[in-house]
Amino acid sequence: MRPISGASLDARRRGRTGRLALISGVLLLAVTACGGGGTTSATGSGDGKDKATKGAAAQQSKQSEAVVTIAPKDGAKSVDTSGALKISAAKGKLTQVQVKNAKGAEVAGSITADGAGWTPSTHLAASTKYTVHAVAKDSEGRESAEDSSFTTLTPQNTFLGYFTPEDGSTVGVGMPFSVNFTRGITHPDAVKKAIHITTSPSVDVEGHWFGNDRLDFRPENYWAAGTKVTVKLDLDGVEGRSGVYGKQSKTISFTIGRNQVSVVDAKKHTMKVMHDGKVVKTIPVTTGKPGYDTWNGQMVISEKLRVTRMNGETVGYGGEYDIKDVPDAMRLTSSGTFIHGNYWGGGAFGNYNASHGCVGLQDVRGGGDRSLPAGWFYDHSMIGDVVVVKHSNDRTVDPANGLNGWNMSWDKWKA
What we know:
The active site is at 340 (proton donor/acceptor), 358 (nucleophile). This protein is α+β, with helices and mostly antiparallel strands. The chain has helices at 6-40, 45-62, 188-193, 373-379, 410-414, and strands at 67-71, 76-79, 86-90, 93-101, 109-111, 117-120, 129-137, 143-152, 157-159, 161-164, 170-171, 177-181, 195-200, 206-210, 214-218, 228-234, 239-241, 244-246, 249-256, 260-265, 270-275, 278-284, 297-300, 303-311, 322-331, 338-342, 359-362, 386-390.
């Protein structure tokens, strides 16, 4: 091995030192380049980053502070048809609310005066999917919106309303719109609210409950001839009693015909048939004999039977009579009062009272002769015509006995 000279050793040391200096310089350059990038950003690419940050902050400051809340929650099932749907706004005011069913029909409702809430003005239908779109604005006028959907319950128990008169019919001036329910109603206000009546010409129509299964509607006075009446039965989803819901959604229309009111005088044994208050015919009659007196009061024809059978068993007069082929019979009360043709009365008509409470008019068995008083009156009468009985020895008919609510004062009717 050759010894290393001093000169060679110094040269090697200088070479090592140079290499170290070069490496250090490279490292310093690298560090300077990284650090220099941050320094340069004040006037270069860093300025764009600050602008983006400021832009994001500005964008965030433009978002509405209003918060819309919808109940029930999105996707909810078996939602109650009343009381469950509520929409509210915090840190802002509601400006728009739309609730629609699958067919696009909107649910009526209103935003509160302070803009904090919205509730429907009616119940919802059962087994129905609804969508909700609600918009609110904050104090700066910035909008916030929420969308949701839910499905109402499917009832296990339901009720129906059987009504009169029929859709499309023409009826007399005394005809109320009467609904009989298949289940006793314990939530009467909810059911009454779901029946909407409009008329042309316009007249105030009010409803009155008879018991818990019948609801009648009428104006204060008899209908004006020619009035068009439209009834919307919006019972689908109405909870009529706990756990029992309506399932009808139906519109009924009927027309009021000419004004015919007939007045029976039990003492004079006559009936005056009047059109618009003018007598068009006077007919001799017989009414209830002593002990079987005919009711006084205003009675509405609710049924017409060209020929029927009358048996005392059906009205509590068992064994007293059973008459076949009774002609031209028209019902005045639920309890069995009729105005009808009578072929067995002999000389009673116009002279004395001989019936068991009905109003009898001269006729032949089966009503074949239409020129006789009973035939004429039957042919010139319609469902809803009024027959008023006066001067009988009995009391006034119960307003609930037949369609005879006219015997109740308007104040009591509305109460």
